[in-house]
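Notebook entry, structure prediction.
Reason for the run: the old model in the group folder had no record of what sequence produced it. Starting over properly, with the input documented here first.
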Amino acid sequence: MIKYIKYLSSAFLLLLSLIVFAQDTNTSEYIKKYKDLAIKEMNKYSIPASIILAQGILESGNGNSRLAKNGKNHFGIKCHEGWDGKTIRWDDDTSNECFRKYNSVADSYRDHSEFLASRKHYSQLFKLGMTDYKGWAIGLQKAGYATNNKYSTLLIRIIEENNLHQLDDKKLHASYEYNKSASGNQQTNPPSESDFEPIDISTNDRPLYSNNGVKFIFAEAGDNFSTIARDLDIYTWQVYKYNDLKKDDTLKEGQMLYIQKKKRKATQKYHIAKANESIYSIAQLYGVQLKTILKKNKLELSDSIQPGQQIKLR
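New structure, fully documented this time:
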């Protein structure tokens, strides 16, 4: 009898874990589920469907965040003055912040449209062409939609990796097909100099950049830890330690290298893993200490991650 009870308990836990796993959606599933809703909002409010979906994917983690699951809030919209609807509490820029809670995802999409259309600091966006998704992404960041200084870059990547810009063209959105190469067969492009604007120039004419409030450079041909340390007047050990590398590692041209200690958390809550990404590449992408990401996600450095897996960043 005891063995039978133990068997039932184990079976129940296995079933429960499968149910929980099945509830998580990946990017392709999110797009298929909500693209028609995004197109409907585009037609009514003149907001590109690509932008609506990309924001939904990014802000809700493909609909898997607690805010999305428990509050049906897919766009991270806070209560703000004048909101008299339901609310849900969530740690964001500060702890226990007030966010809007909806009865349905459709309500969240509609409120997102009305939120952008009714606020003056977003008004310039509606003067852009419907297919100018890059202009919209940059404009949203400049208008302060999110505190992440890479918000526009992330939106543009989501759009281009998934061909979402096709949804903005009425001639193309009827035949839209999810870009399967983004689901697991191709490697996501690593950060490059075109993704950032230099904030300064070193005494040796190296462009300096900033990510998550941390200064970094891109390695040049022939670079090693010693040449970088010499050019930037820092210690050799700082270059490899700040980048979670070993002193005998070889550098590649264009490699992103921090010259200050990385932060313990990112401005973004989580990252949805792409094909061929590693915990290390994600740590570099967001300027977050590798050991911190491993600890937050209960992972080992040798662990592989799967496309669509949610990685906590704070």
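Summary: The CA atoms of residues 157 and 189 lie 9 Å apart.
The old model has been moved to the deprecated folder.
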